[in-house]
Every structure is written in C-alpha cells, then in structure tokens.
From TrEMBL:
<dbReference type="InterPro" id="IPR003593">
    <property type="entry name" value="AAA+_ATPase"/>
</dbReference>
<dbReference type="InterPro" id="IPR045865">
    <property type="entry name" value="ACT-like_dom_sf"/>
</dbReference>
<dbReference type="Pfam" id="PF09383">
    <property type="entry name" value="NIL"/>
</dbReference>
<dbReference type="InterPro" id="IPR018449">
    <property type="entry name" value="NIL_domain"/>
</dbReference>
<keyword id="KW-1278">Translocase</keyword>
<keyword id="KW-0813">Transport</keyword>
<dbReference type="InterPro" id="IPR027417">
    <property type="entry name" value="P-loop_NTPase"/>
</dbReference>
<keyword id="KW-0472">Membrane</keyword>
<feature type="domain" description="ABC transporter">
    <location>
        <begin position="2"/>
        <end position="241"/>
    </location>
</feature>
<protein>
    <recommendedName>
        <fullName>Cell division ATP-binding protein FtsE</fullName>
    </recommendedName>
</protein>
<keyword id="KW-0547">Nucleotide-binding</keyword>
<comment type="similarity">
    <text>Belongs to the ABC transporter superfamily.</text>
</comment>
<keyword id="KW-0029">Amino-acid transport</keyword>
<keyword id="KW-0997">Cell inner membrane</keyword>
<dbReference type="InterPro" id="IPR041701">
    <property type="entry name" value="MetN_ABC"/>
</dbReference>
<dbReference type="GO" id="GO:0005524">
    <property type="term" value="F:ATP binding"/>
</dbReference>
<dbReference type="GO" id="GO:0005886">
    <property type="term" value="C:plasma membrane"/>
</dbReference>
Amino acid sequence: MIELRHISQRFAGPSGWVDALHDINLSIPAGQIFGIIGRSGAGKSTLVRTINLLARPSAGEVVVDGKPLTALPAQQLREARREIGMVFQHFNLLNSRTVFENVALPLELAGMKRAEIEATVLPLLELVGLTALKDRYPARISGGQKQRVGIARALASRPKVLLSDEATSALDPETTRSILDLLKRINRELGLTIVLITHQMEVIKDVCDRVAVLDAGRVVEEGEVVDVFLKPRHAVTRALLGDVIAHELPSAVKARVAAQIEAGEGQLLRLAFAGGGVDRPILSETIRRYELDFNILHGQVDEIQGRAFGSLAVLADGEPRQLKAALHFLREQGVVVEELSHVQ
Ligand SMILES: Nc1ncnc2c1ncn2[C@@H]1O[C@H](COP(=O)(O)OP(=O)(O)OP(=O)(O)O)[C@@H](O)[C@H]1O
Ligand SMILES: [Mg+2]
C-alpha cells in the first residue's frame, strides 16, 4: 500500500546540514497497522510527514496505493492526499468550531453540500462515540474526546491510509487504551491501513502487526511484532523493549547471579516463547529429560495481538553435555534461546 524508496531528508540547521533520514526503504502492506518506533529525535515525525508529502523528501520516492506521489503534478497530488488522513499528538482542533464543525471542515473545504456533509459526519461521530457531544466546543471536552474528534476528522474524506503521529502520547493509560481500541476497530471495520508512530513499545505490542525501529534517521530493524519481541537484534530495539519485557535483571539478582556464574555454577539464559510454547510444559520437560536445575530469575508471560508470549531469564545448571543438548531441544521446540555469557 505504501512504498518508501531510498527516502532521505536533509534540513539546513544552524551549524550546517542535518540529515534527519538516511536512505529509508519500507514497504507497508495494505490493511495492516504498521508501527514506527524510535527515541526522541530519531526522525519518526519527519518520516511520517514524507508519506503524505507534508514535507517533500530531499531524495527518494513515495508510492501510495500505486500512485507515485513524488512524481505527481500539484492538482493530482492534492487529490491523492485526500486518501491519506492524519491524526496528531495535540489534536489540532479549531477552538471556535464545535465537534461537528471540526469534523465537517475538510468536507466544507472540498466544497461538499450541507446535506451530504451531515450524512458523512453523523455516522463518523457515531463510530467514534461522540454523537452526544457533537455541539460542544473543544474547550469543553476531554483529551481522549478531542482525539476522537481528530480521528473522525481524519476519516471524513474517506481515506485509505491513516497516519497517526503519537496520537496517544498526551493521554493517560486508560484513555490511550480506548483510543488504541478505536484505531484497531477502524482498521478492522473500514479496512484502513494505519501507520502509527510512537515511542512506546507498549503501543506497538497492543495494536501493531509489523514494526520498524528508527534510530538516528535509519531503519535499524523491521519485522512482524511477535518476531521482533522474540528476537530483537538491535541495541535500540532491546532498550525500547526494556519497558515491556524483562530484559534487565533486578540489581540484587544480578549480584547473586554474577557470583554463581563466576563459580561455574550455571549459565544464564534468556528464553522467549510465543504461541503454543507458553502453554506446553516445555521447561519442566527439559529439566526432567536432561537432569538440569533451572532457577527462574525474572520474567513474564504476556500477550501480543492475542498470542501468548513469554520471556524468562533463567540460571541453568547441570552437566555441560546435557545442558548443550537441552538448549538444542528447546530450540527445536521453537523457544528462542539466548546464551548470556555475562550478566547484563
Ligand atoms: N524543519 C526542520 N528543520 C531542521 N531540522 C529538523 C526539522 N524537522 C526535524 N528536524 C530534525 O530532524 C531530526 C528528527 O526529528 P523528528 O521530529 O522527526 O524526530 P521524532 O523521532 O519525531 O522525535 P520526537 O519523538 O521527539 O517527536 C531532529 O534532529 C530534528 O531536530
Ligand atoms: Mg515526533
């Protein structure tokens, strides 16, 4: 649905050029919720603004729904842009207009007639749960409700793609949850492709199908969310994952484990499992089969997109040959085994 080819973005900074994006290549499939995550300044907003050419990239090609946006003349570009809706962190509502009028604005600008506007806006307000508040002004609704207005407005021109730049960052956890649920529902019911920018791995875990990790203007990792959670490859991904899965051992545990490893009393492993692996008693079977001792130090069992997911740090002790065979067995069972030779 969205193809970004060799996208670079260069800005004139106070002390020379700033390369905000370097040779970004991404292919975002239709109908998915695609997450883009990265630390502050990584280039997330810059990247999402190139998708609708709100900012034209210094180099590269943007193709949305088969249309090469970067090559279109102004008029055709304006039309193509109507198929791309956008929601913002700070909602960007007009305070002098009611909820209804805010959602109607893009339609008025497009010259739509009053009756048609009503026929479009009212069902959208119903969809986002704001029918009762349609005549209120933004000053008198909550942050979560403002974002619902922002989403309804973005949907007014019936886009095929919705871009969301930190749409939940200004909201509390419960309101975040409800907005994410709404985005999921829109994705499912309207078949909209959603590109969701966030700095929170929790958001990626809850709603995204695929994720790209951006660091210093480059895509450092990309894949299905479950795969990235099971086998994060880049240090930045691991750091971002640290918020939601237990990568880091608590410091008291660390000290104790370091002494045991030093004394040759075990090996530190990180085990990650998805789907069936969580439900089957693989660990106890491994322990029995290979006569090992597993001391579970830290971990959790959780859910990603409805699939069970587990991550455990264990200190495994036993015959070196048996231990080796056990790791092989675990990998055969689909468990991702990481041998941590030093205590992190
Ligand atoms: N218009 C601009 N002119 C100059 N530099 C810019 C401009 N827009 C962005 N930058 C720079 O590009 C880099 C990426 O910025 P961007 O806003 O895309 O980051 P971000 O990942 O969205 O960060 P945040 O999580 O804080 O929103 C930063 O170094 C920023 O200072
Ligand atoms: Mg940003």
